[in-house]
Amino acid sequence: MTGARGFGFAEHGGPERLGYVTVPEPECGPGEVRVRIRAAAFNRLDRFTLAGIPGVAIERPHVLGSDGAGVVDRIGPEVRGVRVGDRVVINPGLWDGTCPACRAGQESLCRAYRIVGEHTQGTATTFVTVPARNVRPLPPALSFAQGAAAPLVFQTAYRALATVGGVRPGDRVAIVGAGGGVATAAVQVAKLLGARVAVASRRPEKEARTRALGADAFLVFGDAEPLDRVLWTWSEKQGVDVVFDSVGAPTIPRSIRALARGGRVVVIGATAGPVAEVDLRTLFWRQASIRGSTMGNAADLDRVLDQIAAGHLRPVVDRELPFDRAAEAFQRFDAPDLFGKIVVSGPPD
User: Fold this and answer.
1) Among 83, 98, 173, 207, which residue carries the largest CB count within 10 Å?
2) How far apart, in whole angstroms, are the C-alpha atoms of residue 128 and residue 6?
């Protein structure tokens, strides 16, 4: 088996550990396809993978990247419906397909659920092998970079808001944070579901681009104007029906205080800390709830790709840089003007 060059790390740690690594070039087993990657996108999950995730065994050297788009170059035995030469995007969620959750179409609840680039080698390389059920046609109007920017964030936003959050037309929905890839997807998905959408951010300079995605309001919070206060004011002191929060410890207690009766905080990440202290009295008195959501089901990805193909949703690319500038691309996570997904294109042959 020959080697393939990828961007990742050989040892856990900080950004100083990043570099180019060599991993075995993947082959195809039964039911699998191999994709020649044309563009790969990074997520904040990659930072946690680099640092090391407690309880998750990560193969090293390790290639980063959960999202990818490219061209099918090989197919394994027993593959139907996929051909060599197909332009595809990769569903980064992996499931066993046999458990009760999978048989019910709830793949993200599979006990064996894994994510490409976290539990397996990632997409920031030349070839990626996945089950054939994990590739979908690249919408014709999208570039490979736009395709790579779509799967993880849009299926995450759709499941969190439509299924777990139960957003209905007319609901007040608040997105905490502006500029990250999942936030840009969540604004659009919430509007698609018929919600009134406010984005709460510490960075006022992101207002114009956020409103261009469909946000009805842009709220700036900080020490002088805490998150719960600006959300309460926006809701005309009625409370917010659904708060979409990926920040974690600093914002969750205030997101809860901003809820309407029967409101829901949907937690999809904890980028600023995983442990929060909450006042349980607010939860039971308002009959509110905190709900967790991770990734999405295969049908969720199909729904959002259909909406993207129809022009109702659009992937937002912050930067597209060549593969040999992957380290520079990865540093964009710390840029104050970050807005959308970070993409690297053209991995080497």
Assistant:
1) 173
2) 11
Nearby residues of 35 by Cβ (< 8 Å), 6 or more positions away: 68, 70, 71, 72, 73, 88, 90, 127, 128, 129, 130, 135
* Strand duo 172-176 + 135-137: pairing: unpaired
27 close to 2: Cβ distance less than 8 angstroms: no
pTM of the model: 0.96
Question: How far is Cα 282 from Cα 102, in angstroms, rounded to an integer?
Answer: 35
What the chain holds in terms of domains, given with CATH numbers, is 3-150+315-345 (3.90.180.10), 154-292 (3.90.180.10)
pLDDT bucket at 250, cuts 50 / 70 / 90 = very high
Q: What percent of the chain has pLDDT over 90?
A: 97
Can you name the residues that pair with 343 across neighbouring β-strands? 41, 320
225's tokens: 């104007």
Q: Which H/E stretch holds residue 158?
A: helix 151-158
Residue 184 to residue 172: CA distance in whole angstroms: 17
Report how far Cα 285 is from the mean position of its chain's Cα atoms.
33
Q: Would you place residue 196 in the very low, low, confident or very high pLDDT band (cuts 50, 70, 90)?
A: very high
- Quick one: pLDDT at residue 134? 98
Q: What is the tens place of the pLDDT at every residue in 118-171?
A: 999 999 999 999 999 999 999 999 999 999 999 999 999 999 999 999 999 999
Find out whether 284 and 256 touch, Cβ atoms under 8 Å.
no
* CA torsion through residues 32, 38, 42, 46, sign: positive
**Separation CA 251–CA 273 (nearest Å):** 10
